[in-house]
Amino acid sequence: xxxxxxxxxxxxxxxxxxxxxxxxxxxxxxxxxxxxxxxxxxxxxxxxxxxxxxxxxxxxxxxxxxxxxxxxxxxxxxxxxxxxxxxxxxxxxxxxxxxxxxxxxxxxxxxxxxxxxxxxxxxxxxxxxxxxxxxxxxxxxxxxxxxxxxxxxxxxxxxxxxxxxxxxxxxxxxxxxxxxxxxxxxxxxxxxxxxxxxxxxxxxxxxxxxxxxxxxxxxxxxxxxxxxxxxxxxxxxxxxxxxxxxxxxxxxxxxxxxxxxxxxxxxxxxxxxxxxxxxxxxxxxxxxxxxxxxxxxxxxxxxxxxxxxxxxxxxxxxxxxxxxxxxxxxxxxxxxxxxxxxxxxxxxxxxxxxxxxxxxx
Length: 361
What we know:
This protein is α+β, with helices and mostly antiparallel strands. The protein folds into three domains: 7-88 and 96-114, Orthogonal Bundle (Butyryl-Coa Dehydrogenase, subunit A, domain 1); 120-204, Butyryl-CoA Dehydrogenase, subunit A, domain 2; 211-357, Butyryl-CoA Dehydrogenase, subunit A, domain 3, CATH 1.20.140. The protein has helices at 7-23, 26-33, 37-49, 68-80, 87-100, 103-114, 211-245, 259-288, 293-319, 330-342, 347-357, and strands at 120-123, 135-139, 142-151, 158-162, 168-172, 178-182, 192-200, 203-204, 249-250, 253-254. The radius of gyration is 20 Å and the shape is globular.
């Protein structure tokens, strides 16, 4: 049995990484993070031409018909380049529509998503726990309430919303009674928003008998994709730390020759390598429908949250004072890892879910 990536998967990820190295260097990331809308649009269009938005759309609807592992490989490449695009939100929208949309909803939206005419934002944070000042309810007049940490709103035409009962809703971006505002986070490479609903019309995703189970599947996929994004960002920070240690000199010696620095780099590498296997296996398990897929998704998200935090801190430490400067730009990776840690549940909450799945809670 072959436990490695296929040749096609390796080539696909290399194509994404090569495009990002050419089209999304740090200077471009910095410009987009500071509000350059034209650069953001051009980068998003280039990635769309490579087919990343079609990965989880079935071939019958014009997509590539690939699986979550392929999407995770894209997320890993995007994380490594701290790419300022909202790939995960749109991917989760496509997955939810494929799993729970009616025939009419799928026929209307999935081909348009494959063509780039429809993009999704996701309001799923409340699926992992509702705050006192948030949560959405469905009434006779439509949706009412508030969603926090909405991902992918710029450029979105539709929003995937989970309500307090666990049902999924499609809300058009221009729907009446929908108000939005920015939600500031430490991560400047992606946007987050707050949505307020006041008798907002919506469509239920009603193409399946168990909508709550679909929410769980979509959140699990989100956990895997966020873990993959963190994996890519952590590997990039390790690579930057090693390169800096091989170049920076103190006492007429490169600091990479000092035993303490060697140990720090070795510790980061030792943390990342098994984490990579965990992320890939969690993605494969969800894609193949294995029984332990929900548990593996939780373990991948929680473990990568901790591993990413360790690597981010250690790589910054190796850079010394330069690690805090905008010139080096290490903070973009540092903050992206920090944001991924909390999105769709921090490691403590996700481990609590893992404990319940094993009958320990």
